[in-house]
Amino acid sequence: MTEQSKIPVPGRPAKGKSLFERADGAFGFEDLMAAPVPDRLAEPVARRAPHAPKRTAEERTPSVTPVAHEVAEAPPGPARQGAVSREKVAFNGEPQPIDRARLRANGLIDPDGDVTTLLEEFRIVKRQILLAAREAVEAGRGAAAQRVLVCSPLPGEGKTFCAVNLALAIAFEKDVEVVLADADFANPSVLSLLGLSAGTGLMDAFADPEVRIEDCVIPTDVPGLFVLPAGNRTSSDSEYLAAERTSEILDRLTRGAPRRLVIFDSPPALAASPAAELAHHVGQALLICRADQTGQSSVEDALSLLSACPDIKLLLNSAHFSPSGRRFGAYYGYGG
Predict the structure, then answer these.
(1) Neighbours of 185 (CB within 10 A)
(2) In the prediction, which pLDDT does 71 show?
(3) Domain 100-332 is in which class?
(4) How far apart are CA 262 and CA 182, in angstroms?
(5) Which DSSP state fits 27?
C-alpha cells in the first residue's frame, strides 16, 4: 500500500494533519467547497407594515379642507346607444273564450270546475316548476329560466295533455302569467283542444322578420292564460329554431315580465328534431313518460337528445296505482 504520511503538502508540514486535509493541500479542493454560512442572517422583510402610533384628534384633522365634487347628472333623453329596453311586452290581441265543454270532454282541467284529483296532481307539478323557475331567475340565468319544454320520447304518451293542464294550473296563480306555445309544428293540437281559432304563430315569427311574436299571442278569457299558435308549417322547422335570431324572438315573450312563464308543447323527442333544438332555449324540460308503455331505452335516448337543457324532470303519466293510496280531490268531496 502507498504510505499516506508521505504525501507532500506545499506550504505547511504534513505532520498532524488528517488524510482529507493533506489531500486538500495536494490537489486544491478549495473551489469545490460550499459557500461560507454567515453567523447572522439578514432580517426578513416584513409583509405587513408596522402599526403607526396613535395620533391625537388634532393630528387626525386634515390640514386642507376637502372640496366637494359635484357630479353632473345626465340630461333626460333617449336611452344610450346599445341599451336594451326592459319595457314589458304586452299582448294586445282580442281575447278569445276557452271552450269549457271541450276541456271536460278531453279530460282536461276546467277553470270553472271543482277541485279534482287531476287539478291537485298538477298543483304539485306546477309548484316544482315555479320554484325551479324562480331560483333560476334569481341566479341570473337569463330569459331561458322562464321557459319550460314539455316533451315525450314517443307519440301517444300524453305530452300535450300534460302541457295544457300544466298551463291551466299555473294560470290559477294570483301573480303569474303563462303563455302556452304550440311548438309541435308538424301536428299542432293545442288550439283544437282549447276551442280557439287559428292565426299566425310561432313559426311565422321565425320565418318572417316582419312578424312580431307578441302579435301572434292570443289572450284568453282565463285570467293569466295566453296561447301562442304553432303557425304555418315549413320544411325548415329545426333550421329556424337553430338560427341566431331565435333567442331574440323568444326573449320578447317574457321581456319586462319576470312573473311570466312560457310552456312549449314540443314534438316527441325521438320522432322529430325540434324538441332537441328547443332544449337549447329553455331552463327546464318536463319529459312525459306513460306508465306501462314508455320503455327505459326510449327514456334514456330522449334524455340524451334533451341534454342541452340544464334541468330535466320526469313525469309519469296515466299511472293508476299509488303505493301510498293517495286520492287527491277526495278530501274536498270530489273523487273525480
Answers:
(1) 23
(2) 34
(3) alpha beta
(4) 10
(5) H
CB neighbours of 284 closer than 8 A, spacing ≥ 6? 129, 132, 133, 136, 147, 148, 149, 309, 311, 312, 313
Q: Nearest 5°: phi and psi at 241?
A: -65, -30
Residue 93's pLDDT is 86
Contact call for residues 218 and 93 (beta carbons, < 8 A) = yes
Report the alpha-carbon distance of residue 116 to residue 168 in Å, rounded.
Answer: 13
97 in Cβ contact with 220 (< 8 Å): yes
Q: What is the pLDDT of residue 170?
A: 98
Strands 147-151, 177-182: pairing is unpaired
Residue 98 CB neighbour total at 10 angstroms: 22
Domain ranges (residues) in the chain: 100-332
Are 162 and 300 spatial neighbours (Cβ–Cβ below 8 Å)? no
Low-confidence ranges of the chain (pLDDT < 70): 1-86, 321-336
- What is the predicted pLDDT for the residue at 41? 55
Give per-residue pLDDT as tens, 251-285. Answer: 999 999 999 999 999 999 999 999 999 999 999 99
191-196, long-range: CB within 8 Å, 24+ apart, which pairs? 191/227, 191/229, 193/102, 193/103, 193/106, 193/108, 193/160, 193/164, 194/98, 194/99, 194/102, 194/103, 194/164, 194/220, 194/227, 195/97, 195/98, 195/99, 195/102, 196/96, 196/98, 196/220, 196/227, 196/229
Grid coordinates of 294: 314508455
Instruction: Please tell me the predicted confidence (pLDDT) of residue 328.
Output: 52
Predicted local confidence at residue 21, as pLDDT: 63
Is residue 228 within 8 A of residue 192, CB to CB? The reply is no
Q: Which pTM value belongs to this model?
A: 0.72
**Beta-carbon contacts of residue 156 (< 8 Å; ≥ 6 apart):** 290, 293
What is the rounded CA–CA span in Å between residue 315 and residue 210? 38
By the 8 A CB rule, do 110 and 100 touch?
A: yes
Reduced to 3 states (helix: H, G, I; strand: E, B; else coil), residue 100 is helix
Enter the C-alpha cell of residue 320: 293508476
